[in-house]
Amino acid sequence: MSASGSSAAAVLPVGSRIPEFAARNQHGETVRSEDLAGAASWVMFYPFAFSRVCGSELAQLHARWPEVQAHGVRVLAISCDPIHALRAYAELLHDQGGGDGAEPLGFDLLSDFWPHGEISASFGAFDAGRGAPERVSFFLDAELTVRHVQRADVSQARDFSEALELLATLG
């Protein structure tokens, strides 16, 4: 587990099964925790769509999607933004990545808007003082068990190379 930053939130520990949840993605489709079963997953919480650091992280994820996809994982990026903002954000990421009209992203942007922060709080990744998730990733096995946790300070992007190394251990 990498740890940087000053948050004192107790995140869901390695070895825990993730809590059940359901949220809508940028297309308005409902995604449930059980949809992740059967394959490894990367669940990443990020504070705000359209912010500088989050934008750089998700743009990198989009640009390097083939490297992530090679690990056969499903990726969920979760924030407390409403789904209409996430739809616009997905379109922006697609346009910045030189999209050609195909599916904008290979991953889902999930809205933890209402009840506000409920999903991120259930993972121990909600900063109530800021009203937004912390920058925390959970790497899950096919049985929805947390195998790795990656954290970064809210002002710093997660180490993408480290995330790829963690994904490689899930197979």
Characterize this entry briefly.
Helix content is 26%, strand content 23%. It is an alpha+beta fold and 171 residues long.
Could you explain how this protein is built, in words?
26% of the residues lie in helices and 23% in strands. It is built from five helices and nine strands, in the order βββααβαβαββββα. The protein has helices spanning 52-63, 65-69, 83-96, 118-122, 160-168, and strands at 22-25, 30-32, 41-45, 74-79, 108-111, 126-127, 132-133, 135-140, 146-152. The strands form two sheets. It has a seven-stranded mixed beta sheet with strand order 2-1-5-4-3-8-9, with helices on one face. Strands 6-7 form a two-stranded antiparallel sheet. The radius of gyration is 14 Å and the shape is globular. The model is unreliable at 1-8 (pLDDT under 50).
- Rg, rounded, reads 14 Å
Q: Helix coverage percent of residues?
A: 25-40%
Structural class: alpha+beta
Which sequence of strands runs across the widest sheet? 2-1-5-4-3-8-9
Unreliable runs: 1-8
* Element-level helix/strand string: EEEHHEHEHEEEEH
Number of strands: 9
* Overall average residue pLDDT: 91
The number of helical runs is: 5
**Terminal Cα separation, in Å?**
18 Å
Share of β-strand residues: 15-25%
- Anisotropy-based shape: globular
Biggest beta-sheet profile = 7 strands, mixed
Task: Sum up the structure in keywords.
171 residues; alpha+beta; 7-stranded mixed beta sheet; two-stranded antiparallel ribbon; 5 helices; disordered N terminus
How is the secondary structure organized here?
Elements: E1 22-25, E2 30-32, E3 41-45, H1 52-63, H2 65-69, E4 74-79, H3 83-96, E5 108-111, H4 118-122, E6 126-127, E7 132-133, E8 135-140, E9 146-152, H5 160-168
Parallel strand pairs: 3-4, 4-5
Antiparallel strand pairs: 1-2, 1-5, 3-8, 6-7, 8-9
